[in-house]
Specification:
Layout lengths: L3 E3 H4 L1 E6 L13 H20 L2 E7 L3 E2 L8 E11 L3 E12 L4 E15 L10 E3 L3 H25 L1
Parallel strand pairs: 1-8
Antiparallel strand pairs: 2-5, 3-7, 4-7, 5-6, 6-7
Pfam families: 4HBT (PF03061)
Protein name: Acyl-CoA hydrolase
GO molecular function: long-chain fatty acyl-CoA hydrolase activity
């Protein structure tokens, strides 16, 4: 394991064409399907970052901002923005793209925590996050701020 890895080492983008089997009776993406895509993309980002198998430990509040319609392309993007000793925090965003019109919009966002495992399935240390340029620093800082705001919103609802 390397001592450090960069945010861009983890950056992952996948695309999915929304087909009828993954839609509800309104022709829009099923929430569970979108969460499945997000979990896979986040896990790949975590594995790229640490070079080990990773498992999902938690997923924060999910914001479904707008629907993905049948025939649109779902673009799922993930990157590591924070690490612990064996845990990796990943920001996952989804946007819908209409390839015929060239239009896109944000649809879903959440934060996932993964745990790195060694070959025996035991939690194992992960590299420290390095953000060597301004773009990576801005992505990390933005994700940290968004997560803090999201957590504050949860606390406010409880009070």
């Amino acid at each position: 394991m390397a001592d450090t890895a960069t945010l861009m080492d983890s950056y992952t983008e996948m695309t999915e064409l929304l087909l009828p089997n993954d839609t509800n009776n309104l022709g829009r993406a099923l929430g569970g399907v979108v969460l499945h895509w997000m979990d896979i993309c986040g896990a790949i980002a975590a594995m790229r970052f640490c070079g080990n198998q990773c498992v999902t430990a938690s997923m924060d509040h999910v914001d479904f901002i707008s629907p993905i319609d049948r025939g649109e392309v779902a673009v799922v993007e993930a990157f590591v923005f924070e690490t612990g000793r064996t845990s990796i925090d990943v920001k996952v965003n989804v946007r819908a793209e209409d390839p015929r019109k060239g239009e896109e919009r944000e649809t879903t966002t959440s934060f996932f925590t993964f745990v790195a495992l060694d070959e025996n399935g035991t939690p194992t240390p992960v590299p420290n996050l390095d953000c060597p340029d301004e773009n990576q620093q801005a992505l990390r800082d933005s994700a940290r701020e968004e997560r803090l705001q999201q957590l504050q919103n949860v606390v406010d609802r409880i009070d």
